[in-house]
Amino acid sequence: MATLDGKHSIPAIGRVEFIAIIATLMALNALAIDIMLPAFPNIAAGFDLDDPTRVQFVLLSYIIGFGVAQLVYGPFSDRFGRRAPLLVGMALYILFAIAGAYAPSFEFLLASRFIQGLGAAGTRVIAISIVRDTHSGRAMASTMSLVMMVFMAVPSVAPLAGQAIIHFGDWHLIFLFMAIVALAAGMWMWLRLPETLPAKNRRPLTAKSVALAFHLVLSNRISLFYMLATAFYFGSLFAFLNLAQPVYVDIYGLGSWFPVTFSLVAGVMALASFANSRLVGHFGQRHLSHAALIAFCAISFAMAVLASAGPVSFAAFFTSVMFLMPLFGFVGANFNSIAMEPLGAVAGTASSVLGFTQTVVGGLVGALIGQAYDGTIVPLTGGFAAVSVIALVLVLIAEKGRLFGTGTPSP
User: How far apart are CA 158 and CA 162, in angstroms?
Assistant: First the structure.
């Protein structure tokens, strides 16, 4: 037996394999989102959609399913352990990825994506719960950053994989590819990842116990407002995912180069997550994440002003994006770590509430910005500026108006 950080004893699979498994599980969600982006025009044409922006619902339906189901996985994983609910979720992901490949109508495809999202929710909630079971404090932030590095690396290859699949086949094969990858990940997890929630620490699955767990999450000021800040902040990322294809292809005419430029952005996001994992132990979660959020506000406001003045060159737009997107690597893992830190006793439920709020609120904010697309980058840049300011205000509320602190337990 060995420990990952001295807190719990688990079978010695090793830190590297532990992080790799957790990252792979979370990466299945990124795969389900980003591999679809190059296929948006093909899907719209395949179902003869009157309004091409409707194809964005392929992303939104998955995100809504992914967000809603997290409220279920948390309490169930606190009661039955981490492995069993995770395996159920992965089975749903695989089955409805296959169903999507044979969708006879656009509505059936949206339903399949919704249920695929229901399954994928287990990978997000339970993966973070497992990290919280075995880590705390800056060690948790460091591990989550390494996990997020792999998670962020997936968008750097997923669009290229999607482009290659539709080049040699059609968009239906993308769903079969997702199912195969998820099956391989599920087998790895089943064979190698141990149960991290001891039986003595499991909570009863009663209405009272679940309500108490939710109360603990929602009544803690730090957890609540960091959760909301992350939700609005990630709304800008969902907006970028919705609009990346039309902006790169329709406005800037990149055509088949779209996956390449998208991959470059995702690559620097992954590098930023790695940098965060190395720096967080020295500077702390708050210093890094607060500085990154302020920088995001400043750059997004500059972009919004520039876009409102008239057409923006691709060089200026892409340079701004290359500065903006890596900041997610310094915000996401640290905000989640700060929000989860006071909630170790209800880690599964806490992870589910945080995940639900961040995904559903972020997804809806991103969809609103995406549906405002008017053939320019004004809705995107304006949306970036608006949601980053909201996120900053929420962090200020959480921290009682003081940024860059060391953090203290707070009700």
Answer: 6
Write the CATH number for 358.
Answer: 1.20.1250.20
- The answer to whether residue 408 is domain-embedded is no
Number of domains in the chain: 1
DSSP percent split of the chain into helix, strand, coil, nearest 5? 80, 0, 15
Range of the domain at 111: 2-398
Domain-embedded: residue 13: yes
| Each residue's pLDDT tens digit, 352-387 | 777 788 888 888 899 899 889 989 999 999 999 999
Q: Identify whether 347 is part of a domain.
A: yes
Rounded CA-CA distance 103/123 in Å is 24
The per-residue pLDDT for range 219-243, each reduced to its tens digit, is 889 988 998 999 999 999 989 988 8
Q: Which ranges of 81-194 would DSSP assign to H, the alpha helix? A: 83-101, 106-134, 137-168, 172-192
Residues 6+ apart with CB under 8 A from 116: 32, 62, 65, 92, 93, 96, 97, 100
